Amino acid sequence: VQLQASGGGLVQPGGSLRLSCAASGFSFRDYWMYWLRHCPGKGLERVASINNGGSNTYYPDSVKGRFTISTDTGNTLYLEMNSLSPEDAGLYYCARGGGRAYEYDYWGQGTLVTVSS
After folding, report:
1. Distance between CA 31 and CA 116 in Å, rounded?
2. In angstroms, rounded to a whole number, what is the distance separating the alpha carbons of residues 34 and 44?
């Protein structure tokens, strides 16, 4: 199993960014997938969840309406982020669900998002 996150970078406040996570060794049909972030001075926060099969998505209030998690048939996980603010800056990780709540068994390496003018 491998997860490789990419797409981070510098974006201006109010801008958009799309993160990608290339997965191999398993199918999204069998696992929940997540995006989490670690922002400076804050703990780890789960910002998006998608169930196995991709029919349902979940977001915390902090990003609801601005972030969208999705998958494609090529085993890539995405996180579309809009209306970004400096509070969204941090290291973003994709992760595979480990079977229980808030359990993750594989992680991508993280991709850095910087929001600054």
Report:
1. 35
2. 12
